[in-house]
């Protein structure tokens, strides 16, 4: 096939009114007369039985020599089985991505296509309020905290295509080395969800986390939150907590945690507006309670009856902190953190295998049932556990108020009694029925005293 038919002299002689539409150079290269009057180099090639055309530049900005050089490069790609048009598009995409990445670097943002960027996109998707069963604010923060601590610093910079089972396993092994087995399992699950999210968007072909299911250390399922289950140990804890030399709000939180046995988040983030000390009740907003977003959106608070001892402690504390929003503020006026309370337990001399903040829920459940003889249904209602109730948890949160109020008063009396005696006999404690109020609260909260007696036989 004859080539190099075009010459520079011929090209310089071309006029905008030249009738020729196409003047060949050979081997697929030609110059085309455009409707605008300009002339441009084009290259035709056949691939998979179809004729394709790509531009080689506009004349005279692109010289004849350069057009021939570009055409020769295209033929080399074809010889290698590469489509020149697709190769050009790929380079354009890469250049565009590099510009985006340069902008992200300047703004301190993760690069597109990396695990870090996709993790942020996944969390944003799952926490979107418009999403059915979207994540709560607390759950979103918990997931992001695990990713920021364990994943992003180690492998967040890697592109999704670079992720392999050994790379992910190294991250998990580091978490397991700190004996955080539950965290390791959760982190692997987060990574797997991110990868599946990327697969749905066509950015990955498979989930590298799936091959690690059997590689994780499985902790002993019987290892629950460490808890005090014996009255003498509880008495010792109260005495130690009363002598805590740290922040006063931390000391009070440790003591009231025993009396109220709430979840750490519920207690630490309590604000004064939730407390009605005149009527001895604490209303915990549903948004701060454990549960699905659907349950939280019902906006039905969990009611906690307050004993006379708790009310007295809160009133005294309120007088000392009249301007504080939070009941348990730290030195900066914000809510105490869970780590602060955990460190306080260690300062009191308790190892993590002995006592945990959450473990006092087990403490209360065990002693209220085994020592004070309360029905587990009332205890579970106070703990806000999921119960087998045809009316659902929403009703359970505001029922049993008469029994729960008396139980909470008896519990505080019990704590006060054992903490004041160094030689305490658990079996000698008796509830003083006459000393208890006729009603736990000045209102019946859906259930009158008469109905309560018909529904449940109180230990009183």
Description:
- The protein is an alpha+beta fold and 460 residues long.
- The protein is built from 18 helices and seven strands.
- It has three domains: 8-82, 2-Layer Sandwich (Double Stranded RNA Binding Domain), CATH 3.30.160; 115-215, Tyrosine recombinase, N-terminal domain (DNA polymerase, domain 1), CATH 1.10.150.130; 231-455, Orthogonal Bundle (hpI Integrase, Chain A), CATH 1.10.443.
- Helix content is 47%, strand content 8%.
- Helix 4 (115-126) runs antiparallel to helix 5 and helix 4 crosses helix 7 (181-200).
- The radius of gyration is 36 Å and the shape is elongated.
- 25% of the residues are buried.
If you consult CATH, what is the topology of the largest domain?
hpI Integrase, Chain A
Estimate the strand proportion: 5-15%
| Cα Rg | 36 Å
List the secondary-structure elements in sequence, H or E.
HEEEEHHHHHHHHHEEHEHHHHHHH
SS element count, helices: 18
Count of individual domains: 3
For the largest sheet, list the strands in their spatial order.
1-2-3-4
Structural class comes to alpha+beta
Low-pLDDT ranges: 388-398, 423-460
CATH architecture verdict of the largest domain: Orthogonal Bundle
Name the shape in a single word. elongated
User: What is the number of beta strands?
Assistant: 7
C-alpha end-to-end distance: 108 Å
Question: Can you summarize the main beta sheet?
Answer: 4 strands, antiparallel
**What is the helical fraction, as a range of percent?**
40-55%
CATH superfamily of the largest domain: Intergrase catalytic core
**Mean pLDDT metric:** 83
User: Can you identify the CATH class of the largest domain?
Assistant: Mainly Alpha
